[in-house]
Design goal:
Layout (H helix, E strand, L loop, with lengths): L4 H28 L4 H25 L6
Helix pairs in contact: 1-2
Length: 67
């Protein structure tokens, strides 16, 4: 199902907030000194997946350029 431009922008905003929250959670775990390495690795992978999804959706907003 294709999303319209407004839905894409809204989803990008939602994912950006999630990405920022994950970043804060990772930093809080590291700063606490009680960090679980595996948990931090999982959170970082999740953060990367969000970044990739945001980039993919951002590309959907750009018009196709015929070279």
């Amino acid at each position: 199902m294709m999303m319209d431009e407004g839905e894409i922008v809204e989803k990008i905003q939602q994912l950006t907030v999630e990405h920022r929250d994950l970043d804060a959670a990772i930093h809080a775990l590291i700063e606490s000194g009680k960090s679980d390495v595996l948990q931090i690795q999982r959170l970082k992978k999740q953060k990367l997946r969000l970044r990739d999804r945001i980039a993919h959706l951002g590309n959907d907003l750009l018009p196709d350029i015929i070279a």
